[in-house]
Predict the structure of LuxR family transcriptional regulator.
Amino acid sequence: MKQPIRILLVDDQALFREGLRILLSSQPDFEVVAEAANGEEALRQAAVYHPDVVLMDLRMPVLDGVTATRRLHELYPMTRVIALTTFDEDEYIFEGLRAGAYGYLLKDVASQKLFEAIYAANRGEYFLMPSVTARVMAEFSRLPRSQPVQPASIPSPLSDREKQILKMVAQGASNKEIAEELVIAEGTVKNHLSNIFDKLEARDRMQAVIKSKELGII
């Protein structure tokens, strides 16, 4: 039997945590193992319960969510953090992602999107709302564009299909969305992404997009 995804809720509003706990506990694939009211408590709870996914508010007393996310990422790299906050300013978005968050959602997100984000983070995939993805890519577009590299500059150049998939990843598409758009199996998408990561020496989707931007591939 498949084990449920173990979740830690971190928010200084007790009522919001209660609502989240009730919502997530209604899903058989999720198990809320602990709660915390600030980043410091989150670190203590993570040390005890070793959650798979952490839903993290960013602005909290004692220790803020960005700092807590950074420390969790360093101490427990297999624990995936999703920023779940009311703030959609660029400063919070970029700080959260730089700290190691695998997702950035606003608190008014639809429950189904929240579920999708948890599944994606648990798989080690990034999940961003379209408006957030647009801002991230706009930030990348402001970076000086490198001259397109010659094939010999990369030990194993990306195929046309891999470039196509990488562009869709940069637009915020999930594996499922890519598979549906290209009419291929989701497992095939995963295989392509694995090849892309190997060729670019990237550890994840976000790093692959950043490196491909720096190399002038997309």
